[in-house]
Write a structure and sequence with these properties.
The structure is a single chain. By secondary structure, this protein is mainly alpha-helical. It is built from eight helices and no strands. The longest helix has 28 residues. The relative contact order is 0.15.
Length: about 200
C-alpha cells in the first residue's frame, strides 16, 4: 500500500481573511436562528425552554454564545495569531453544536415543564396570537387579542422589550421602512435573562 504523503493528509489551509469571513458567516447564522426564537412570540410560547436560562442545555448554549462573541475579531482583516484564530474557530464550533443541542431539546420538551392549567393558558395564547396578527381581522379585534395574549402568558413567559416591539408592530400592521427592513433586529439587551421559573414535569 503506498504511503500517503504528509502534504496529502489535510486540505491546504484557507487564507486567514477568508477563514474569518466563513467563521463570521456561521457565527451570524447561529445568532440569527437564536434571535428567531427570542423575537418571535409564537416560538417563545411553543418552545419556552429556548429562552429559559435555567435550563441546563440553554444555559450551556448561552455560555458558548458569550465565548464566541467575546473572541470574535473586529473584522476579517484583523491581524491575528494562529492561536487566536484557532481559539475563535473552536468557539464558533462549540456555539453551533450547543445551539443545535439546545434547540433539539427545547423542541422535544416544548411546554412539558408547565402544569396542565398553564399549558392550557399557553394554548389559548397561541390561538389568540393568530388573531392578533391576522391581517383580515379589524384593528380592534387585533388589539383585544393582543391584550389577552399578554394576560395569558403573564407569570409564565417574560417577553423581552425587543420581542414586544416586534409583536406590537405586527398587531398594528406596521410595515418596516426601507432602512428597518435592511437591518436585522437588535438582540435582547440581556440574553442570559431567566424568564421562567424552574418547574418539575407533571
Amino acid at each position: 500500500m503506498p504511503v500517503r504523503k504528509k502534504a496529502d493528509a489535510a486540505p491546504p489551509a484557507l487564507p486567514q481573511k477568508e477563514l474569518l469571513e466563513k467563521l463570521f458567516a456561521e457565527h451570524d447564522e447561529i445568532t440569527a436562528r437564536w434571535l428567531d426564537y427570542e423575537l418571535d412570540v409564537a416560538k417563545l410560547i411553543a418552545f419556552p425552554a429556548m429562552s429559559d436560562g435555567r435550563q441546563p442545555l440553554t444555559a450551556a448554549f448561552l455560555r458558548a454564545k458569550k465565548a464566541a462573541d467575546q473572541l470574535r475579531p473586529a473584522s476579517a482583516s484583523a491581524k491575528l495569531s494562529e492561536d487566536a484564530v484557532a481559539e475563535y474557530l473552536d468557539a464558533v464550533g462549540n456555539y453551533a453544536v450547543a445551539f443545535e443541542i439546545a434547540e433539539k431539546d427545547a423542541r422535544r420538551v416544548r411546554a412539558s415543564g408547565f402544569s396542565e392549567a398553564e399549558r392550557k393558558r399557553l394554548d389559548r395564547a397561541q390561538q389568540l396570537l393568530k388573531v392578533a396578527v391576522d391581517e383580515s381581522a379589524t384593528q380592534a379585534e387585533r388589539n383585544t387579542a393582543y391584550k389577552r395574549v399578554r394576560e395569558e402568558i403573564e407569570g409564565l413567559i417574560v417577553l423581552s422589550e425587543e420581542a414586544v416591539t416586534v409583536l406590537e408592530k405586527k398587531v398594528a400592521q406596521q410595515l418596516p421602512s426601507g432602512s428597518d427592513a435592511a437591518a436585522p433586529p437588535a438582540p435582547p439587551a440581556d440574553p442570559q435573562r431567566l424568564p421562567l421559573p424552574k418547574r418539575d414535569a407533571p
